[in-house]
């Protein structure tokens, strides 16, 4: 935090006003005390006597100087307390920042969006007894849990760097490039992180005498239903796909258009089990819905020679309804069906953006809903600034890469 800017000494008929350590002192300490504005408005005998006296030119000059000094003191008080409040507020926000440990913006932006999700953080916090011991098999979850606590101000900046290195290093099991300082793709990192967390959970449940562990990745999981209808006889084959934790969408002017395009009917050549027909229509629906829907926008296009970044704008809605995309047998079974079976509306909670012209250069940042669901924050590694939802929706149209929507 930069020090408070120096302020000029106020005009005073008796010398400069003493302000030790940046804290204003408005008390009269000189042999010729300065009357306060409050004193001039009170009903004291001094005031009445002051008002009853006939003002001389010297009196008027002294009164003018007194007024200027009092006004300056009030302004200084206002500046100090405003600075003090903003300093405290900035301190609360900056503790949320994550240091860049060497081209690690892809990691920081993804983690910040995850840490903005109450359900994800709640699953981590409630199971601290499982991941906190040094001997735990939940090594990655332990790092995530400790880093989550550090964002609450419970550890040092140095400890944050150490935890981030451990998280990044754990991804090297899948891709050895995570051992060095090269930039990586935020979407790939997010999927590898989910995979690693699932693997650790399965290991724990396979060996523990208390297999009550709930993997936080379950917040993102959902199932799709595939319905194949024969074009000749109408025979239907319904299949349930494997568990998903995100959807990758083609880039369209509107995000909802890209989502609906993912589920639009397609033609398939196959042999019908009833009439031996060779053509069918395939339609996909949500069979279950997640607590948190992760949408990845395909901003990189292979033009035959290389991957090229597409910076076309995409309209980002603050609310997203999936009602028309849930199949006849689908519901929000990913949660407590008694409480959530009719909920299909999601609210935007975070965005990972890629700033830059190509896949090889650029920078990742994130925008998230602030604590307690109020306001928005832009997180650029260790730098945290306040912003507004309307600003986020407008400025991220050409850079939004991964979006997080929470069941509303």
Describe this structure in words.
Belongs to the peptidase C19 family. Its EC number is 3.4.19.12. One of its GO terms (biological process) is G1/S transition of mitotic cell cycle. By secondary structure, this protein is an alpha+beta fold. Helix content is 35%, strand content 21%. The protein is built from 12 helices and 14 strands. The strands form 3 sheets. Strands 3, 6, 9, 10, 11, 12, 13 and 14 form an 8-stranded mixed sheet that branches. Strands 2-1-5-4 form a 4-stranded antiparallel sheet, with no helix packed on it. Strand 7 and strand 8 form a beta hairpin. Helix 4 packs across helix 9. It is globular and about 70 Å long.
Question: Which features would summarize this protein structure in a list?
Answer:
408 residues, alpha+beta, eight-stranded mixed β-sheet, 14 strands, 21% strand, disordered N terminus
